[in-house]
Structure formats: structure tokens, C-alpha cells
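As a next step, the fold was encoded as C-alpha cells, giving this record:
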Amino acid sequence: MKEQMQWIRPEEIEARSMEIIESEMPQGSWSPGELAVVKRCIHTSADFDYAENLYFSDHAVEKALEIFRKGGFIIVTDTNMAASGINKRALETLDGHAVCFMADPKVAEEAKKREVTRALVSMEYAARLTGPLVFAIGNAPTALIRLHEMMEEGSIHPDFIIAVPVGFVNVVESKELIAADPAPCIVAKGRKGGSNIAAAVCNALMYQLTRG
């Protein structure tokens, strides 16, 4: 028996998807801003577990929006995939930038010499940047661990952290470190996450300022 397909205008597909997500997701006590992030992560992954595993520090969304509203911010990612997934029009509208140091030859050379990950070295390079810093980490727990260490050392003061790496080794533990740190954050607790989720969280936050 053939299933009947829905005919939907291209410009209406996302809105219809969000309606389906909201109708199927469990009830929660999210603020409107938090709900937008949760729905965007589910929309990106088709995984309703994000309705359960996303952790928001106190007033996290409000603090992120304040950063984005002022402009001049830099989003630092741990993969070029995440950087590519962040909406460029929204970034331009808000006078923001996205950077990733993972492909920098100097980062690769230093990481090889020190026998550490490029993600770790990338965080140290990011500490040299000026301006409000938002970290969107979707792949490398070593990036989060180094961020945690540098915050303890006082060598970096992230304005916001999106901690959503995916995997099995040090992933859960690194996220727990960030959730307990003083920096405002959104964390995907557990093993799930990814570069697409890191970009989705960034976009969900920026869309609250750039879409009507």
C-alpha cells in the first residue's frame, strides 16, 4: 500500500517540520528561547532525545542573545563542518564571524610536535583572539577539556560555550566539566551531539534575532 505524500510549498517545509516536532515532543518547562534551540536540534537530527539531554545554564539563552545583539562576536568551532553550517546571512546581519583553526598548518605542526590533538591547540590559538568569544564544540572533547583548564588558569574567559561533542572517549566527562564551569553554556549531556548540532544551536540562537 502506497503512503500518501504531502504536497507542501518549499518555503513552508521548515514551518511544517517544526509543527510536527512540537506536536510529537514531550512536554517540558523550557523558556521560549530554550524551546527554539531544542526544536532546531531535533529538526537537524530527527532525534527527539535532544528534548531530554540539552542542559541550559541559568539564563543561557538570554546571555547568548545579548552577546549576539551587540555584534562583533567570534564563534570558534572545532570543525570546518560546524563553521560551514553556521548561517552566514545571520552572522553578517549580526556583525559576527565564525572561525576554525583545525586546518591551520601551524596548528597541525604544533599538535604533532607536542603529541596532542589539533583541537586542543586550536583552543589555545583562540585564546589570542579579541572580542566576545563563543565556542561551538561538536566533535572534540579535548577542546572542551583544554577550555576548562584554561578557564581554571585564568588564561581565557569564554563569553559562551556550546558543548555538544559526539562520541565515546571523554565525551560525557568533558561536557560535565563545562556544565560545572562558570561560563554560560548549552550542553548536550551524554554521548550524542556533533558538528551539525553545534551549528544548529548557533543558528537557533541567531534566528531569534534575525527572523521575525
Q: What stands out?
A: Strands lie at 54-56, 74-77, 97-100, 133-137, 160-163, 185-188.
